[in-house]
Automatic annotation (TrEMBL):
The gene is Aldh-III. It holds the Pfam family Aldedh. The lineage of its organism: Eukaryota, Metazoa, Ecdysozoa, Arthropoda, Hexapoda. The active site is at E266, C300. It comes from the Eukaryota. Keywords: Membrane, NAD, Oxidoreductase, Transmembrane, Transmembrane helix. GO terms for molecular function: aldehyde dehydrogenase (NAD+) activity. Residues 58-483 form the Aldehyde dehydrogenase domain. This is Aldehyde dehydrogenase. Residues 9-23 have a biased composition (Basic and acidic residues). It comes from Drosophila pseudoobscura pseudoobscura (Fruit fly).
């Protein structure tokens, strides 16, 4: 690392156009070397880039046609078939763990430990969770019935949607794609799998390896960038699940709207983190910095900025310097434990954002490695670029507020975040934030970890997304809940129901009103109690009777 490449951030250097580039080029802006690494056509199941528009359309037509025929054949409705595919996917993760880690290292210079926790182990656990519960999830639900349906079969049948499209993002290129894919398979759909072209090595891995484990007609992989995805979106899907930026989310939603295709959009935004003075600061600083720096800040649920008092800001900065030294040593760039920025477009964008406020910690960078030192900015203003767009990098601005009330006001004046973090020892204050703000998720005294709780839904609200997944919520996302009523044609049932037929009369009308009247259902809880009390009373009466009989017999002797 020479002095010529690593330098303190020069706030006078001209990056004035960089922040603006974000809206037009972060997604589309692929580095030349990334493009050349884009996946080719390794198997018949993956559709390639670099073809003419009509070739691409013909390929997509063919891929979709095969998937539709496969769905129509009914094989994905078979639960054993789904289970087998999921077991194969699990085996794929186990057998190719080293290749997955290498691909992530090549794309993001991701440390092995992070790749294990947030990609391979996460994906394995997700599939195991599905396999443990699938037989329960697929069962039709039997809701409690009202008196009018007491003799009927009332059920919610779990129907797959059909052929669904899952589009992944580059920052967690496997997990964000393959976890929803596993949910869609579990729910009985055929799935068109579209990795992000920006994490080119991971896209190559997905295109080459996944088809070796999954049924190729039911689960094809298609590759490509924005133009290929635009072509793909002209096809009619039965469901679209998209992860990525809010800007592209709007494009996906508009395309889906052409066919009234339901969508889940897992988007981004700015997730705030409030710290109050009651916290144990060292632990809070570690948890916040870890959440900010894992994957070099390129995490949709990274704490985007901090809200705290001026006093807490000074303490946070001092503690953060110490923690960073403990984690990465004196020369952070030489530490193997910090990922790199995905590409030069994002690197330049981040340098532009570093011009906001004043650098209190860090600020160095090296374009040759797309390295940015963990950086804390203070004295930022609400309308600085860093406070207006999602950061998605290792930069943490602190905006000072007078009180928790001011922090809530600040948050509520902006788009609804993907998650809100609150660090406080006061349960009352945590509750204040939870009940007076809206966000996709909420997490107190911790960062990131809420997304690993597989019994919780994960998703955004408003501009941070719509719909959710993970565990059962993923299965439900890819399932159409078909409401089914089954009756018989018995004479008794027909007699009861015949009051609905003309000629109408007051007698028939009042009989129908009686049958249809909404009654508070007897909760199961009460039912078991009533049965237990009834049983107790019955046994007591029987015992008394028995004693009386015996007493009578004794007296008569
Ligand atoms: P990206 O560039 O990888 O794009 C995501 C997908 O959209 C890719 O498959 C890409 O090919 C496709 N795409 C890009 N431009 C398109 C266009 N014009 N038309 C059609 N398709 C297009 O990822 P990104 O958008 O840079 O991802 C970063 C964003 O994603 C951040 O805002 C982040 O917060 C968000 N994100 C959200 C979640 C979540 O779970 N909510 C997870 C990860 C990332």
């Amino acid at each position: 690392m020479g002095d010529n490449v690593t330098k303190p951030f020069d706030s006078d250097s001209d990056h004035s156009n960089v922040a603006k580039d974000r809206t037009t080029s972060t997604v589309i802006d692929i580095e030349p070397e990334t493009e050349s690494e884009s996946p080719s056509v390794p198997t018949p199941a993956s559709t390639s880039l670099f073809q003419s528009e009509s070739d691409i359309m013909a390929n997509f037509d063919d891929t979709l046609q095969r998937a539709r025929l496969a769905f129509a054949s009914g094989k994905t409705r078979n639960v054993s078939f789904r289970r087998k595919q999921l077991e194969n996917l699990l085996r794929c993760y186990e057998e190719n763990e080293c290749d997955i880690i290498s691909a992530l290292e090549a794309d993001l210079r991701r440390p092995k430990q992070e790749s294990l926790i947030v990609e391979t182990e996460f994906m394995k656990n997700d599939i195991k969770h599905i396999l443990y519960h699938l037989s329960d999830w697929v069962k039709a639900e039997k809701p409690s019935k009202s008196i009018i349906n007491v003799m009927d079969d009332v059920q919610i049948y779990n129907d797959p949607f059909g052929v669904v499209l899952v589009i992944g993002a580059w920052n967690y290129p496997l997990q964000l794609l393959l976890v929803p894919v596993a949910s869609a398979i579990a729910a009985g759909n055929c799935v068109v799998i579209k990795p992000s072209e920006i994490a080119a090595n991971c896209a190559k891995f997905i295109a080459e390896v996944i088809p070796k484990y999954l049924d190729n007609d039911c689960y094809p992989v298609v590759c490509g960038g924005p133009s290929e995805t635009a072509e793909l979106l002209k096809q009619r899907f039965d469901y679209i699940f998209y992860t990525g930026s809010t800007r592209v989310g709007k494009i996906i939603h508009a395309a889906a709207n052409q066919h009234l295709t339901p969508t889940t959009l897992e988007l981004g935004g700015k997730s705030p983190c409030y710290i109050d003075k009651s916290v144990e600061l060292r632990t809070a600083v570690k948890r916040i910095l870890w959440g900010k720096l894992i994957n070099c800040g390129q995490t949709c649920i990274a704490p985007d900025y901090i809200l705290c008092s001026k006093e807490m800001q000074d303490k946070f900065v001092a503690e953060a310097k110490d923690v960073l030294k403990e984690w990465y040593g004196d020369n952070i760039q030489s530490s193997p434990d910090l990922s790199r920025v995905i590409n030069s477009g994002n690197f330049q964008r981040l340098l532009g954002l570093m011009k906001s406020g004043r650098i209190a910690v860090g600020g160095k960078y090296d374009a040759s490695e797309r390295y940015i030192e963990p950086t804390i900015l203070v004295d930022v203003k609400p309308h600085d670029p860093i406070m207006e767009e999602e950061i998605f990098g290792p930069i943490l601005p602190i905006y000072t507020v007078e009180s928790a009330y001011d922090a809530i006001k600040f948050i509520n004046a902006r788009e609804k975040p993907l998650v809100i973090y609150v660090f406080s020892n006061s349960n009352k204050l945590v509750k204040e934030f939870k009940s007076n703000t809206t966000s996709g998720g909420f997490c107190s005294n911790e960062t990131i970890m809420h997304c690993g709780v597989d019994v919780l839904p994960f998703g955004g609200v408003g501009m941070s997304g719509m719909g959710s997944y993970h565990g059962k919520y993923g299965f439900d996302t890819f399932t159409h809940k078909k409401s089914c009523l089954g009756k018989d044609l018995s004479a008794f049932g027909e007699k009861l129901a015949s009051a609905r037929y003309p000629p109408y009369s007051d007698r028939k009308g009042s009989f129908l009103s009686f049958l249809l009247r909404k009654r508070r259902p007897l909760p199961n809880f009460y039912l078991t109690h009533v049965l237990a009390i009834g049983l107790g009373v019955g046994l007591t009466v029987l015992a008394n009777y028995y004693l009386q009989v015996r007493k009578g017999k004794l007296l008569s002797r």
